[in-house]
Write a structure and sequence with these properties.
The chain is an alpha/beta fold. The protein is built from twelve helices and 14 strands. The strands form four sheets. An eight-stranded parallel β-barrel has the order 3-4-5-10-11-12-13-14, surrounded by five helices. Strands 1-2 form a two-stranded antiparallel sheet. A hairpin with a 2-residue loop joins strand 1 and strand 2. Helix 2 runs parallel beside helix 3, helix 4 packs parallel to helix 7 and helix 7 packs parallel to helix 8. The chain is globular, with a radius of gyration of 19 Å.
């Protein structure tokens, strides 16, 4: 192994809030649709445990999105974090990660309008406003257009804030080291933030401060439950994912970052540009966010080895999150350290059942 490579900060230990990590490589949250739906969206099968154990060379693992309520579910076979059975299902996964020397936080989410009644037990999707996304839901009944959601009442909003708080408490009970709030990619928190989906005229809509209110209430509730040093949030200020947009991302997310500083959360996980696409999307100054945010800045979107090393060495980020590369390369940290060839992920197996394309990608120590 190249000694010079090992001196690079990317591969050195760090502290993210209250969480000590062995390196600055983060496994991004990755929906894989392999929870047990029949048991109530419960994780913890042998292959689930093996999947996370294999990838525990990452300094920090962010779990796949795990819904805080049945109505917050947007995809088939995604796990939850709201029931005792789900908590018990996560326990062997978090133990396997810890035994392998890594740390893991639960990404807790509510998809809001980005779903269909076929996925929510027959319940109409909810959102800040009754604005239908131009998007397709994948259900057991095939591909269907997403319907118009029901606009949440203020009382409904308070209930959902409580669901996030319970999700955070359950995550700690399940052995997670903390949580990441999913505030990106057009899901519920993001829907409140951006005026493409939020047309409200009450205290949760209109002004930048009002549109940030829901996100900050969720943050405050989760901090009160588990402490700021174990809380992070994922943000995507300019991504068009799930038919979402905003007229002034810099104003909205600039204000949000300043408010997060007052709360001393552990990290912000930024999708720089369009999720899974171009990094060159106008509307938000990520360099400004890096300089302004006082916690750990985790950068994501299209990073390769050289980009990651350079970003950390130059101080443009504190850690780098990799998604698809971790799907196909369970031992990604070792491969990056050695500058070894990378396996190519197979998109046809991203959301299928079973071990194929899940736990069967070859590792360096398995090479003939």
């Amino acid at each position: 192994m190249n000694t010079a490579t090992n001196t690079k900060k990317l591969f050195q230990p760090a502290r993210i809030g209250d969480i000590d990590v062995a390196n600055r490589i983060v496994m991004a949250p990755l929906t894989r649709s392999r929870a047990d739906e029949a048991a109530g969206d419960v994780p913890g099968s042998a292959m689930n445990i093996d999947y996370y154990r294999q990838r525990s060379n990452a300094g920090l693992i962010i779990s796949e999105g795990t819904q805080v309520s049945p109505v917050g579910k947007g995809y088939m076979a995604t796990p939850g974090i709201y029931s005792d059975a789900q908590v018990e299902g996560w326990k062997p996964i978090t133990k396997a990660v810890h035994d392998a020397g890594s740390r893991i936080v639960a990404q807790i989410w509510h998809v809001g309008r980005v779903t269909h009644a076929d996925l929510t037990g027959g319940v109409q999707p909810v959102a800040p406003s009754a604005v239908r996304p131009n998007a397709i839901a994948y259900t057991h009944n095939g591909k269907v257009d997403m319907p118009e959601p029901r606009a949440l009442s203020v009382a409904d909003i308070k209930v959902i804030v409580g669901e996030y708080r319970l999700g955070a408490a359950n995550a700690i009970r399940a052995g997670f080291d903390g949580v990441e709030l999913h505030g990106a990619n057009g899901y519920l928190i993001d829907q409140f933030l951006r005026d493409g989906a939020n047309h409200r005229s009450d205290e949760y809509g209109g002004s930048v401060e009002n549109r940030c209110r829901f996100a900050l209430e969720v943050i405050d509730a989760v901090i009160a439950e588990i402490g700021a040093g174990r809380v992070g949030i994922r943000l995507s200020p300019v991504t068009p994912a799930n038919d979402l947009s905003d007229s002034n991302p810099q104003a909205v997310f600039g204000y949000l970052i300043e408010q997060l500083n007052l709360r001393h959360i552990a990290f912000v996980h930024f999708i720089e540009g369009a999720t899974g696409g171009s990094r060159d999307v106008p509307g938000f100054d990520f360099a400004w966010a890096r300089k302004t945010f006082n916690g750990t800045y985790i950068a994501n979107n299209g990073y390769d080895r050289d980009m990651a090393i350079d970003a950390i060495e130059a101080g443009r980020a504190d850690a780098i999150a990799f998604g698809r590369l971790f799907i196909a390369n369970p031992d990604l940290v070792q491969r990056l350290q050695q500058n070894a060839p990378l396996n190519t992920p197979n998109p046809k197996t991203f959301y299928t059942q079973g071990v194929v394309g899940y736990t069967d990608y070859p590792q360096l120590d398995q090479a003939a």
